[in-house]
Amino acid sequence: MLRMSTSLGVVLFLAVATVGEASAQAGAAPPPPAPPPGSPAIFRAHADMQADLSRSMAEGRAMASARIVLTDQYRGAMVRRTEANGAIRHPGHTEMHYIVEGSGTVETGGTVVRRDGEMATIQGGESRRVVPGDIVIIPDGSPHRYSEVVEPITYLEFRVVAPN
């Protein structure tokens, strides 16, 4: 399955060590606080992430994920998408996607458009083809979606609290 490269490990380390995030789902318990400065690093073994991602993929949904970390300042996950998704936005949070495998089109910016019975789309956004090694940084509150999945896309996702 997925093989984590040295550069991917560096991106993961830097993202976890230097950023902050997370929003709780409505009605869900709030995430725990980030570890205090000087705490040991957060470590998630590749084998454990792969097992979690495999379990999530077995549910047969168009998106599977394996949590890396979830705090009140940042969150990280390995995400796999097998088909296009509806447009979403995360007010108060900036997001980074590091494409690990697969290819497709990511659409960002513009305005989310919702029509009854249809997947939310983006009007006036910008589309980019993504392949392994690409990084997409989605600013605070910016609409985004994977409008096309050519090959299943796996990416590292980090969402951080956007500074005021």
Write a structural description.
By secondary structure, the chain is an alpha+beta fold. The protein has a single domain (6-29, 43-161), classed as Jelly Rolls, CATH 2.60.120.10. The chain is 16% helix and 40% strand. It contains two helices and eight strands; from the N terminus they run H-H-E-E-E-E-E-E-E-E. Strands 1, 2, 3, 6, 7 and 8 form a six-stranded antiparallel β-sheet that branches. A two-stranded antiparallel ribbon has the order 4-5. The N and C termini lie far apart (40 Å). The relative contact order is 0.23.
Keywords:
alpha+beta, Jelly Rolls, two-stranded antiparallel ribbon, 2 helices, 164 residues, six-stranded antiparallel sheet
Domain count: the total is: 1
The arrangement of helices and strands along the chain is HHEEEEEEEE
Global shape: globular
| Average pLDDT figure | 85
Structure described in brief:
The chain is α+β, with helices and mostly antiparallel strands. The chain has 2 helices and 8 strands; from the N terminus they run ααββββββββ. Strands 1, 2, 3, 6, 7 and 8 form a 6-stranded antiparallel beta sheet that branches. A two-stranded antiparallel ribbon has the order 4-5.
